[in-house]
Amino acid sequence: MAQRIHFVVDPQGWFCMGLIIFVWLYNTIFIPKVILFPHYEEGNISVVAVLCYYFCSLFCIASLFRASVADPGKLPDNPKIPITEREYWELCSKCNMMRPKRSHHCSRCGHCVRRMDHHCPWINNCVGEDNHWLFLQLCFYTQILSSYTLILDFCHYYYFLPLKKENWDVFVFRHELALLRISAFMGLIMLGGISRLFYTQLMGIFTDTTSIEKMSNCCEDISRPRKPWQQTFSEVFGTHWKILWFIPFRQRQPLRVPYHFANHV
C-alpha cells in the first residue's frame, strides 16, 4: 500500500522547516566546495570520504521530506471498530470521534493521531504511529551529518595539509574563514539540540511510552505489559530486520501484535 501524503497548512511550521532546509543546503554546497573537493584533488582525503558525506546528506534530506509529508496516523472520519476491540477504544472529547487508546488529538492539525508522540514544527507534522520511524531516522542522520561537518571543519584548519592552489571561486576563497565558522556554529547548534531530542525519543521507545504520556503521567500502571526493546523498535520501524531501520527509501508495514500490547495504557 502506498503511503498517504499528509500536508499541514501552518506558516510557523513552514518557517521552521525552511530553516532546517537552509542549514542542510548551506552545508551540502559549501562543505564540499571549500573542504572535500579541494583536498580530494590534492590527495589529502579519499573519494570514500566525499561519497560518505553525500550519502549522509541524501539520507538526511530524504527522511526530512518523508517525515514531513507522511501521514502520521490520522484516524478516518468513520472508523470501523472490530467488535473484539471496542473495549480498547474511547471517545475523543475534542472532536467527538471514537479512537483507539494511546491516540491523541492534535489541536494544531485538528484531528486525532494514532499513538501520537508530539507535534513537531521542525517537520511541520505530527509524529505518530506511521511516521515515527522516519522522525527517528531524521534525528539520527542529522547528528551524523552535523558531526561529520564539524570534524571536517576542524581537520581543515588543524590536520589537513595546506592547499597548494587557491580555490577557483574568488568569493569562496576570500570568505573561507567566515563560511566555515558559520558552518561550525550551525553544526554545534544542530548537534546539541538533536542529540537531546534523539536521546528522549530512544528512551521513549525503550520504555514504550510517548512524550505525551510522559507529560501526562498516564503510564504508571504497574499492570501494563512490558515488551523487550527489540519488539518496541520493530513495531516503530515496521520490520524485524535491523538493517532496514536505517533506510528511509521504503514503505513501512505495521507489525501484527496482540491488541492489548499495542493499545493498553
From TrEMBL:
Keywords: Acyltransferase, Membrane, Transferase, Transmembrane, Transmembrane helix. Signal peptide: none annotated. GO terms for molecular function: protein-cysteine S-palmitoyltransferase activity. It is found in: Membrane. One of its GO terms (biological process) is protein targeting to membrane. Pfam families: DHHC. Its main location: membrane. It is a multi-pass membrane protein. It catalyses: L-cysteinyl-[protein] + hexadecanoyl-CoA = S-hexadecanoyl-L-cysteinyl-[protein] + CoA. InterPro entries: Palmitoyltrfase_DHHC, PFA4/ZDH16/20/ERF2-like. The chain crosses the membrane at residues 12-31, 43-65, 138-159, 179-199. PROSITE patterns: DHHC. Its EC number is 2.3.1.225. GO terms for cellular component: endoplasmic reticulum; Golgi apparatus; membrane. Residues 89-216 form the Palmitoyltransferase DHHC domain. The DHHC domain is required for palmitoyltransferase activity. Belongs to the DHHC palmitoyltransferase family. This is Palmitoyltransferase. The lineage of its organism: Eukaryota, Metazoa, Chordata, Craniata, Vertebrata.
